[in-house]
Amino acid sequence: MSNDKQHSSDEIDVTDPKLTKFDIVKEGLRRDGIEILHYEPAFPKAGTAEEKRIERFIAFCFTLTGLGALGFVVTYIFWPWEYVEGNASELSKWYTPMLGLCLGVALAGLGIGILTWAKKLLPKEELVQDRHDGGSSEEDRKITGATVSNVVDETGIKRRPMLKRALLFGSAPLGLAAIAPLGALIVPPGDDRDHTGFDAKKYNDGNPVRLILKDGTPVRPDMVSVGGQVTVYPEIPHGTTNKHADSPTLLIHLRDADSKEAAKYIKKNDKKYAESNWNNFFAFSKICTHVGCPASLYEQQTNRLLCPCHQSQFDIIQGAKPIFGPATRSLPQLPIDVGDDGVFYAKSDFLVPVGPAFWERDEK
Q1: Residue 4 above 50 pLDDT?
Q2: Mean pLDDT calculated for residue range 59-64
Q3: Domain annotation for the chain: domains and CATH numbers
Q4: What are the phi and psi torsion angles at 114 (to 5°)?
Q5: Which residues make Cβ contacts (< 8 Å) with residue 28, sequence separation at least 6?
Q6: What H or E segment, with its residue span, contains residue 324?
Q7: pTM greater than the 0.70 cutoff
Q8: Alpha-carbon distance 318 to 261, whole Å?
Q9: Which regions span the lipid bilayer (predicted)?
Q10: Which end of the chain is more exposed for a tag (fewer CB within 10 A), N or C?
Q11: What DSSP assignment string belongs to 83-132?
């Protein structure tokens, strides 16, 4: 709409109180060079059985939205989410699926309801408009206001209280569902990131935690051939389950020359790990420091460890330092030794937190 547009003498005075909102809308369309080719109310006669049926369906969709959103909030706050020891039927296993299901139902109900409302209840119209540029005059702004108000009237929400209540019921919990996750920022996250299943004091009454295979077999040096590797876990209750998902560790048996080179590099560049290996055996966290994928593809000829998710590569000779890909910090090394029973055990927990790097971490 243009301020400098010269209105013709046959234009209607939009301030005339006798005009309906639709009259003002039509005048605004005419001034904008818009021609109404077709205009037909969805239901010329209000209150028909078909209209009521559609209203009930839309109300059902919005009610479903409200119930789904409420379910999301209730699940987020009250559903047990921490890992529970036991079989796969535990409620904690369904925490994430239930969040997705409830939110999916809420958004699907809202989308289907709005689309059905627009397709079945709004007037069917076809308009053609000539393009023009410029600002808006005072009259144009009044026309725009009337147009918006008329659109609200055309939705029929004023004469359809059931839909109004259903929409409010559906949208209010949906807004709450968007806000509820912010509550997680109130509770401090704790120090779980600083401890894995190899923490003897926390999980094994102060006794050294032995290294075992997935099936619980204690790991001995003669079980890993030269140049080979094996995934090990802490020998604690449920140490091989998701309760200690940050504990999987890669035990690597380096060749003698490679072992000497690795020990020399570590002693020079990262002295805290100087006594972490046992002979030619080195243990590194299996959790990639990029986004936490399992870095487990070991190439023994080059002594490189590859994460298959985003192709980060770690040089074991250089203390599992990242040499390619998006990872930015070395894989934490687990201090290990062999006990009198000939089984590997962890001399301590990892010296630095395992897992992905982020801006608050200053260690490499």
Answers
A1: no
A2: 94
A3: 21-185 (no CATH), 192-346 (2.102.10.10)
A4: -65, -45
A5: 14, 140, 143, 144, 146, 147
A6: strand 321-324
A7: no
A8: 8
A9: 57-78, 98-118, 166-187
A10: C
A11: --SS-TTSGGGGHHHHHHHHHHHHHHHHHHHHHHHHHHTSPEEEEEE---
